[in-house]
Every structure is written in structure tokens, then in C-alpha cells.
Design a protein that fits this description.
2 copies of one chain form a homodimer.
Chain A lengths: L9 E5 L3 H12 L3 E5 L6 H5 L3 E2 L10 H24 L5 E2 L3 E5 L2 H16 L5 E4 H7 L9 E5 L3 E3 L1 H14 L3 E3 L3 E5 L2 E4 L2 E4 L2 E4 L17 E11 L11 E6 L2 E7 L4 E5 L13 H14 L7 E12 L6 E6 L2 E5 L5 H16 L14 H8 L1
């Protein structure tokens, strides 16, 4: 089986999170015959996400390849969203920007490290006093030490996005099979109901991808995260107009407003295996930090608590590339699954079309960690 | 219409919380023809309760009539539960007892007031050091100042109780009509689907009772409360074996273990009209206090958050008695609906049988507040 000359491949996508759905839709648009396997597509970690498209706010010294991949994907997002609106539905982006608030002097020092780093790599980010932040977001507490104003980062309504992708795929002919994949091989996928033949398998099962291919064992692990959905009341101060991130006693927090009056508050992060239940301590932490930074949320309705499993690689860069004959991987997106969806889908479609990994996605080739793992 | 000579009355019970269900079941047992109106019986505030049957732990100087009514009802509880088990199902009582922990010196001072009061009214309650509490409940934090060991108070699984009452009523011939009552008059109940004739109406609609009868306007108000349900994990310390109450920086807290590994944590208390949504600040408060008192709950699964509306009278004593010709009231049970169910059902049945309010229920006659209200 060669990929170079193939015009239309039969593609089996394993996993219906944001990566699997984006790959399936874009592959179908590119003319491939796509079947997507997931017992419950448009759920999982992508359903629990905050929806920030935030390569700059998420940047950190030493993770230049992550920043580069993120910025390349962010640049693709507007067109991706436009085409998605045409094929499926509007994923509802928020372009109002992002601020990052620091609670205490230690937290402010962390913002300074980030600001210095962003200056060094040529991205502007303005360090301001706490009272300057309150001018931009009046509901913030007056007790903040400092803040960073981050231009460019966007946000998207993750749940509208997933539904739009599901619909766009359907309209472009993606066949959704609502069942688990138990094993994959070159050109084959085995489910409860039998074997499914194809030309290419795309592994996009997030944290569960590690169990599906020998080469991935130990390279992708689940990293649990909890989020809350709060709903403003008629009588309470409205949610912040833009994404508010904060560092509160060394713990990251975000409040991402949605167009319907909800705010997504996140996110905890810890190892808990494949457990997807919400922990009392995680919710307490988020509520406590959110109330300190934006006090009016205490009055908001707690509409939902949820947990998801991010898929973390060993270096926080995703694994995108050919794994073996007939098997492509697209997982390990860590905190950046929504952000990386366009660049990942484009890279996988390039491989399906017989090409090479394009642009910044080259750094995400799994060869880098397979090599390390075998040392 | 006279009640003295009647053998079997046609009774319309308005409201299917613990009071309405208990009244309906006991009235049916006494031979009356009972119809209960509630769009969703076995729900509401009773569904959200902690389940403590705690006249002593809830006692407070100045509320002697509440303590007396509570103790009379507590004494009736074992037989009530036995008969309920026979007619319906076991409501699963917990007889392991109650401790009350104090977080800081101010909280400890509150316990001393309660202990003094209990001694004065002849109920023993042992004031102990924090480390003595930990011997009884090993999962408690070592930071507690003091505690009170309360003998006698019981707990019941409120959800099993409601289901058991529903079933017992059904078996005894109660007719459940799943619709709202819009208005009541002497010997009549009006619902969306029409008028329903009866001999006696029993108003047991909790916080909503005030809107159903002119005499009650302003005498019953909703008092919102939030609870959490936490579920222990296999790997975490198990829940406390008995009811743990606490005062944490002047706020009451309780953790009531259930036989299935869950713990009910409650309860907030504030005026919020008829709003039954869960507030973020309320959940934060409960999680924070619970984690301070019993640290392992941080690891527990947050299985549920819920809010309910207690029906509060003006003096914390329920309103039980004849309101007008053909109309009996049984509401305003505040934090004690489950505790007061047996004594309330017995009192209402006595009225239906043509008798007077028996025992401690005499103090709950609505005449006391009607009089005040008209001054």
C-alpha cells in the first residue's frame, strides 16, 4: 500500500473529539472516504474544555515548538471557522482578547517571567498594574497585584464547535460509527461488531490512544482536568467581556465568557488515571480562586461541573505524523486541542494526500519521542 | 360540614414532600379516602435534605416548643419507620449518633451555650476536647477546638424515606394526582384540569403554601438551602461513621453518611425568593468548610449539588392545625420536616378523625401566628 498516487483513500478515524472530528471533516472535504469511530462523538475532553485559542498566554520558556505550532494554527483559525460556518454551523468565536491577572507577589513574578519571554521571542505583551486591569474588566477584585494584557489570543465556544464539526462532517459524507475501537492494524480497525478495512487509520483517541498502538505505549498519558460552568443572574454583575486568566497562589485559573451569559471556569490539572469523575477538592479550588479574582461569581448559578482527560505527551507537543504503514497518529494535544485542530487536520490531510508534514507540524512528528523512548 | 361524627373523610392533600406523603399515608391507614396533589411527589426540599432527626443538636435557647415537638416526634420515629418498612420500604435509619465540632474559639463558645442550655433543660450533652472527637471519628482534622457528643439524635436516608412513603401510600390506596393545585377552598381544590370536591383539604405545600390561603400570607416564606452529595473513593478514607455537625467560623455544617458510601454535606441558608438554582458561592462555602473539618472529602467525587426551599414560619415552629372550615395546614417545618413527619401526620389524622391537636403539636396551632399577624 502506497500513499503517493492515491486519489481517494478509505480513512478510518479513531476518536471523535475535536481532533478526530476536524480531521474527518477536512479529509472528507479533500475527497477521502471517511469513517469515524466513537461511541459518543463530540464529547470527552473537548466537551469539557474552556475554549481558549491561546498560544501566547499558554507560552512558556523552553516550549518554543509549542508556541510556533500554536501560532500557526491560530493564524488558520479564522478561515477554519469560516469554512466550518459554511459546512456546518458557526462555532462562535470571541475576539475580545485576554488578560492575565496575578493575585500575590509570587504570582506577579510568574507574569514577569512570561512577559520577558514573550518580549525575547518577539511577541508583545503589556505588563500593567492591577488597577489598570480593573479599567478593562470592572468586576475584577481590587486586590490584584499586576496583570498582563495579551493581544491576539482568541476563544471559541467548544460545544458549539464540536456540534458544528459533527454537522459539517455529516454534510461532507463522514460516516459516524458509534462504537469503540478495540484494536488497529495497518489498514484495519477492529470493533465489537467486526473488522473494518481501510487504507489509512488515523489515531485521534486522545488519552486512550496510547493503548491502541505499541509505538505509543507510555508516550500519551491522561491528565485530568475539572471545569465549572457558571451562569450569571439577572441581578448580578455580568461576566467579564473577555477571557480572564489568573495565577492565584501559583495555580492557574481561567474564566472564559460565552455568548449566552455562561462563564467556563477552569481548570484543575492532575494525574488520576482514567478516572473522569469530578473531585470535591478540584471544584473547591476553582470556586475559591474564581471568587477571589471575580467576586460576583459567588452569586452565579453553578450550572455544571465536569471532568475531562487531556492527552499529554512527554514534551507537551502533540504527536502528529505517520506511526507505521497505514497508521497516522494525531493526539497528545494536552491543553491545546481546540487551538491545534486546524493545523493538525491540515497536517493529517497532507499525509493522506501522500505529502509530508507541513510547516510547524514537522516538529510534532512522533519520530522524536519514539526515538527517545527506545533509548 | 362537621368532622366529629365522620368515619371516612374524602381528604385532598396538597403537596407531596415528606409532610404531605406522611399525612397521606397515615390518613389512608386511618381509613380516609386520600388524594394527593403534586406534579412531582417525593421531590422538593425533602429530596434535598440531610436527613438528620436531630431535636437536640438543633436546639437553641428560646425555642423550647421546637425542642419539645422534635423530641416527641423523635420518640415516634422508630415505630413510624417500622410501620413504613411493613407498608412500603425500609427508610434506612442511622443510629450511630451525632457529634458537633467547633472550628475556632468563637465556634467553641457557641457549643458551650448549647451545652449549658441542654443541661438546663435536662438533656445531657458531653463537651469534649478536639482530640477526644478524633478518637470517635478518626478522619476529623486535628485543628478542632472542641466538640459536643449528642446522644439520641438519629438520621434517616431522606430519599429512601420519600420513596418508601410514596410506595406505602400507594399500597394503602392514596390516589396521586400529578398536577399543581392553583387554589383551595372549603371542601374544594382547583387544579388545571378542574375542581375536586372533598371533605377536608390538607395544605402541605411547604414554602408554596403561603400562596394557597389568605390566612397564611406572609406567615410562611422560602428559605433556600444548598447541599452536596460526595462519594468516597476506594482509595480514600471512608466517610465518618456517624453524623458530624460543625460550626466553622460561625457557620453551621453537617456531614451525614449514607449506607451506600455517600455523604450529604449541608447546608447553606439564605433568602432568595423561590429561586431553586445552586449558587456557586454556596457550594464553595460548603466544600471549604467540609474540607477543613474532614480533609479527605477533597478526594471524594462531587456526585451532586442541589438546592431546596425550606418553608420557614415566623417563629421556627411549624404551622399544624385547622385553618378554616374544611382546611387544615401542615407546613412551616423549616429545617425539621423529616424529623417532624410522624408527629405532624399523627396530629393531622387526629383532626381528620374529629379530635384535637395532641401533645406537643398543640403549640404548633396556626392560631398563635394568625393572632400575631392581625395585631
Amino acid at each position: 500500500m502506497t500513499t503517493e498516487s492515491r486519489k481517494q483513500a478509505r480513512v478510518a478515524v479513531v476518536g471523535g473529539g475535536v481532533i478526530g472530528l476536524a480531521v474527518a471533516w477536512r479529509a472528507a472535504v479533500a475527497g477521502h472516504a471517511v469513517t469515524l469511530f466513537d461511541p459518543e462523538p463530540a464529547a470527552g475532553a473537548s466537551w469539557v474544555a474552556g475554549g481558549m485559542l491561546a498560544p501566547v498566554a499558554e507560552a512558556w520558556p523552553g516550549e518554543e515548538a509549542v508556541l510556533e505550532l500554536g501560532e500557526e494554527s491560530l493564524a488558520q483559525w479564522p478561515q477554519f471557522a469560516d469554512e466550518l460556518t459554511t459546512d456546518g454551523a458557526d462555532p462562535v468565536m470571541n475576539t475580545a482578547g485576554t488578560i492575565i491577572a496575578a493575585w500575590d507577589p509570587g504570582d506577579a513574578a510568574q507574569l514577569e517571567v512570561l512577559a520577558d519571554y514573550l518580549r525575547r521571542v518577539g511577541r508583545g505583551a503589556e505588563l500593567v498594574h492591577g488597577h489598570e486591569l480593573r479599567k478593562r474588566v470592572p468586576g475584577l477584585t481590587s486586590r490584584l497585584r499586576a496583570g498582563l494584557v495579551v493581544p491576539g489570543d482568541l476563544a471559541v465556544d467548544n460545544r458549539r464547535l464540536l456540534k458544528a464539526l459533527l454537522l459539517a462532517g455529516e454534510r461532507r459524507g463522514v460516516d459516524y460509527r458509534r462504537e469503540w475501537v478495540e484494536a488497529v492494524g495497518p489498514g484495519t480497525v477492529r470493533t465489537e461488531s467486526g473488522e473494518f478495512d481501510c487504507d489509512e487509520v488515523v489515531l485521534a483517541a486522545g488519552a486512550r490512544t496510547g493503548a491502541l498502538h505499541d509505538e505509543l505505549r507510555g508516550l500519551v498519558r491522561p491528565l485530568k482536568g475539572e471545569i465549572l460552568r457558571l451562569r450569571a443572574r439577572r441581578t448580578s454583575l455580568p461576566p467579564p467581556p473577555m477571557t480572564v486568566r489568573a495565577v492565584v497562589e501559583n495555580r492557574p485559573l481561567y474564566l472564559v465568557p460565552r455568548s449566552d451569559g455562561e462563564v467556563v471556569v477552569g481548570a484543575t490539572q492532575y494525574e488520576a488515571g482514567f478516572d473522569e469523575t469530578v473531585a470535591a477538592g478540584g471544584v473547591r479550588e476553582l470556586l475559591d480562586a474564581a471568587e477571589r479574582v471575580y467576586p460576583s461569581v459567588a452569586e452565579y448559578e453553578l450550572a455544571e461541573t465536569a471532568a475531562g482527560l487531556r492527552s499529554a505527551s512527554t514534551d507537551n507537543l502533540p504527536l502528529i505524523g505517520r506511526l507505521s504503514d497505514g497508521v497516522i497518529v494525531a493526539t497528545g494535544h494536552y491543553r491545546n486541542g481546540l487551538l491545534h485542530a486546524p493545523v493538525t487536520a491540515r497536517a493529517v490531510v497532507a499525509l493522506l494526500d501522500g505529502g509530508e508534514l507541513p510547516g510547524a507540524a514537522r516538529a510534532a512528528d512522533p519520530a522524536r519521542v519514539e526515538k527517545e523512548a527506545s533509548v
